[in-house]
Amino acid sequence: MPAPAPRRPLATRQDVALIMVERRLRLWAKRSWVGMVWPIATPLVLLALYLFVFKSVLRVQFHDYPAFLFSGLIPWTFLVNAVTNSVQSISSDADLVRRSRFAYELLPLACVAAAALFSLAVLAGFIVYQAATGHLVYSVVGELVPALVSLYLFVGGLSMLVALFDLYNRDLRWVLGSLLTVWFFLLPIVYPQDRLGHRLSFLRSVDPMSLIIGEFRYALVSGRVFEPIHVLDVFLISVAFFLACLVVFRRVSPQLPRVA
Amino acid sequence: MTGAPLLLVEDLWEGFRVRTDHGSLRRRQVRWALRGVSFELRPGQVLGVVGGNGAGKTTLLRCLAGALEPVRGRVRAAGSVASVIDLYPGASRDLSGREYLRFLAVVSGVSRSEAAVMHDDVIELAAFPAERWSEPVLSYSLGMLLRLHASLALHMRPGLLLVDEVLSAADAGFRTRFLAAVAELCHSGSGAVFVTHDPTLLAEACQRVLVLDEGAITFSGTVSEALASEELVAATSATRPLADLTVAELVAPRRIRSH
After folding, report:
1. For residues A10 and A101, what is the distance between their CA atoms, to the nearest angstrom?
2. Contact state of B107 with A18 under an 8 Å Cβ cutoff
3. Alpha carbon distance B259, B245 (integer Å)
4. Distance CA A160, CA A110 (A)
5. What's the number of domains chain A is made of?
6. Interior CA angle at B21 toward B16 and B27, to 5°?
7. What is the pLDDT along chain B (259 residues), one digit of tens a residue?
8. Across the interface, which of A1, A89, A100 has its CB nearest the CB of B78?
9. 3-state secondary structure of B9
10. Within a domain: residue A3?
11. Packing angle, helices A144-168 and A228-252, rounded to 10
């Protein structure tokens, strides 16, 4: 077959991924005075709220509670931000999906990447704060790298799954907020892991977020090395979960222009 | 025309699962949008696809664009494909025209480096006021969105250009320039497929015509054969063979002005 038109440099998957993330960031700033500030401010607002409730009202006695709380809120607010933005990422771009063939998983993953940038800004700020107040143990800060990789993979997989689910059934978008609230209180964010009791202690082994929050806390607050076996556990679980979600997404992908 | 086909479509079947009245997909019920469609397009040709609403025209374009994978059959296109199908910006509606153009270009296959420098070319083709490029695309009329999409598609100089019936949103000036640019593109060896209800467009721009009815081809031939055919009369809801109409009758009532 002839190729009549001159060949032009074609967009790579990386080009499409970058432009998707760029669009997400631009859209965040539209019709807003301080659009980009909100994702960064959210964990700070939650920190203030929970400090008020648990320290001032309930009088919880806990050493360095603000740092303990904030180290859990950083990965959690990233998850919430990424997942809530991903859930309608395909259905709100139905026209684009119906007219063009591209890697559709980039739509939810762009939401995750944009949320990750905001989350990294918050994390960097917290590391600087901990260092300035003398609470940072520099030798264990590197432990954050596997924790971040596990977090991004886990949330990336989850985001693809919820975006796909929303295409077929709209129930999830209505109950997502409630489900996340339940999940939040089952995670050791506002309380330490050992307060969960024996009956619910199994959650630690089945919920990767529980271990990821533990990794964040060890590296940022306790200044200790997280058990290597758990670091490996959570990394492998996150990789397996991400790959499983990607495989499911790609298998369903050809159907998306028909369903969107 | 001689030479290898630019586009080869063989026994194309495409279907959608039927939805219930509250929007869920039925398990086993499929509505066929295309039933065994086969045709070819040679370099330099413009094909007009005509048919009533729901005949499968847009589904055919989506298959040709590669957005839909056919249930059966195959589509082989030589070279790159650019399409002007759906114009609505969806989640991108808050982007400015300039930002949206860049986004659309990369998603359509233009590299980021080229998308960053192609703006002036597309502005010239689209020819709407420069200040409108800074405004959000949600403020654009259908005609302006058409200009943006069509200018981008032309800028890409595709091997195959696919244009849905959205061209009816173009004003006379843009339509003339667009058709001239398509003719020049096809002269250089590309091809185009126009979906239309407009016999004028067939007469002006196309060499061959396909008529679709309920997903199947009911007519395939040259434009002059098509204009005399009963199938085209039925597909365009005309009252007599279109070949009997004068040029003035063909052209006059079908000009639609965009904002």
Report:
1. 14
2. no
3. 29
4. 10
5. 1
6. 45
7. 456 889 999 999 998 877 777 777 777 778 899 999 999 999 999 999 999 888 999 999 999 999 999 999 999 998 889 999 988 888 999 999 999 999 999 999 899 888 888 878 888 888 888 889 999 999 999 999 999 999 999 999 999 999 998 888 888 889 999 999 999 999 999 999 999 888 888 888 999 999 999 999 999 999 888 887 777 767 665 555 555 555 445 444 444 333 3
8. A1
9. strand
10. no
11. 30
* Closest chain A residue by Cα to residue B108: A100
Retrieve residue A167's tokens. Answer: 């295409």
All residues of chain A having their beta carbon less than 8 Å from the beta carbon of residue B92 are 23, 27, 93, 96
Determine the distance in angstroms separating the CA of B238 from the nearest CA of chain A, rounded to an integer.
Answer: 30
The alpha-helical segments, DSSP class H, found in A133-227 are 144-168, 171-186, 203-206, 208-217
Tell if the CB–CB gap between A11 and B88 is shorter than 8 Å.
no
Structural domain including A24 reads 13-259
B188 Cβ contact partners less than 8 Å away, ≥ 6 residues apart? A4, A5
Dihedrals φ, ψ of B161, to 5°? -110, 130
How many CA atoms lie within 13 Å of A172's alpha carbon, on the beta-carbon side? 18
The type of residue at B225 is E
The answer to whether ipTM exceeds 0.90 is no
Please tell me the total number of residues recorded for chain A in this structure: 260
Whether A7 is in a domain gets the answer: no
